Amino acid sequence: MSGRVQPSRLISVSRVRTDPIYFFVLLVLFIFSKDSSAQPTELTSPNGRHSLRIMEQSLPHTDLVYGNSTLVLSKRDRAITKVPTTGYLISALWSPDGRYVAVNNRRGNSGDYVWIFSLIDGRALKSPDDDSFSFPLSKITKLYPDCNEGSFDRDLTVAKAWKSGNELEVEMRWRFYKAALIVRHAVYKISGRQLMLVDQQISRHPVNWQPARDRESAICLRKGLSGEVLKHLRFQSSLKPGIRP
User: Fold this and answer.
1) Residue 145: what are its φ and ψ, rounded to 5°?
2) pLDDT band at residue 18 under the 50/70/90 scheme
3) Residue 79, exposed/middle/buried by CB under 10 A (0-12, 13-18, 19+)?
4) Residue 141 in this model has a pLDDT that exceeds 50
5) Which residue has the higher pLDDT, 134 or 94?
6) Which of 7-16, 95-104, 157-166 has the weakest average pLDDT?
7) Where are the domains of the chain?
8) How many angstroms separate the CA atoms of 44 and 94, rounded?
9) For strand 152-162 and strand 124-126, is the pairing parallel, antiparallel, or unpaired?
10) Which of 2, 54, 61, 168 is the most exposed, fewest CB within 10 Å of its CB?
């Protein structure tokens, strides 16, 4: 018996490998591995002094549910900040004066994606877990009564652009089942270590609304993806229309 594989085991392995479910699982893993690998692994500032990357390694004593990876901000190849995170990088917006960076870090299918770091000392001025950009659902319901807790689906917050050296435009979206998509464009000013609301505009749109420029941006963010992955993403969007990643 020693060192010899029994014929029955060979038959068992052969059956597993021809099982359609087995090949389906392989296909799913293949698609999502290509999707993940196509995301930017490192983002560099225009002047080349700073860079951002996500390490697939957790920091000590970190809750692995929300911090199974580490976001690293480096200056001239030296790490100046390491924070626990999950997911992957989408984009980095470097302020025109070289003092800040806003990071869009996809951490799930909804929620707040935005980090803001000081490039002077590496300190995080905002993390996706804080309430710097919070806007109560009750205020939306007051404006639009049919957009309430009972019809709420999900929300999304991303950084859009720097309006000046210390003023950042962000976009928040709330999707409500069979009701509407509420969009809030807001500008926040960095003052010291605080974020101050400067201006905001709230608008209502059909549930599946999405401006053409956002579709173009999404394609740019996904550049490098194979045709198979893009088809898969479109298929997923058709199953769950509304706010897209």
Assistant:
1) -55, -30
2) low
3) middle
4) yes
5) 94
6) 7-16
7) 39-209
8) 9
9) unpaired
10) 2
More confident residue, 209 or 21: 209
| Whole-prediction pTM | 0.71
d(CA 167, CA 161): 9
Amino acid at 100: Y
The model's pLDDT over 229-245, given as tens digits with 9 standing for 90+, comes to: 444 444 444 444 443 33
Sign of the four-CA dihedral 86, 89, 90, 91: positive
Q: How sure is the predictor about 191, in pLDDT bands with cuts at 50, 70 and 90?
A: very high
